[in-house]
Design brief:
Number of domains: 1
Strand content: 35-45%
Order of helices and strands: HEEHEEEEHEE
Radius of gyration: 19 Å
Helix content: 10-25%
Number of helices: 3
CATH class: Mainly Beta
Structural class: alpha+beta
Shape: globular
Distance between the termini: 62 Å
Oligomer: single chain
């Protein structure tokens, strides 16, 4: 009987929490990320940045990310829906095909694993600057990123 009383007391709290989560997600915008041409299975790392300093930094720590995604992927295409606040963002992606949790380079400094950026921009050496990869999220949006 005591457990039933506790459950009845917690029910309004549970309902309010769920309503708050739903309301909070309604305030955010949906970003659909489509990644194509994945050549090998592995782990996809998606870094979403909301400022130039963090995006252009060589620091790859989680503290620099606005939002990060790490998931197993198969060959082919990958789709992900996330919810973000209105704003300006840029994305970096790579596929860790050997599961060593890092982006590998050959002896000449060229990438050994697939990578890509929002707007499908590339730089001759190194990642592009934030201003070339940025996109504005002011409505629900779908972006497509082709891996290299």
């Amino acid at each position: 009987m005591e457990i039933l009383k506790i459950l009845i007391l917690l029910l309004p709290f549970s309902i309010n929490t769920q309503l708050y989560k739903n309301y909070h997600n309604l305030q955010k915008l949906k970003l659909e990320i489509e990644v194509s041409k994945i050549k090998n299975k592995g782990i996809i790392y998606i870094g979403i940045y909301n400022n130039e300093i963090d995006f252009n930094s060589n620091d790859t720590s989680k503290e620099r990310l606005y939002n990060g995604i790490k998931e197993n992927v198969q060959k082919g295409n990958y789709n992900k829906e996330i919810f973000l606040d209105k704003g300006v963002y840029a994305i970096k992606i790579y596929i860790d095909k050997n599961y060593n949790n890092k982006f590998d380079f050959n002896i000449f400094g060229l990438p050994k694993e697939q990578y890509g950026f929002s707007n499908n921009v590339m730089n001759l050496f190194g990642p592009p600057d934030f201003d070339k990869a940025l996109f504005i999220l002011n409505d629900n949006k779908k972006i497509k990123i082709n891996l290299r």
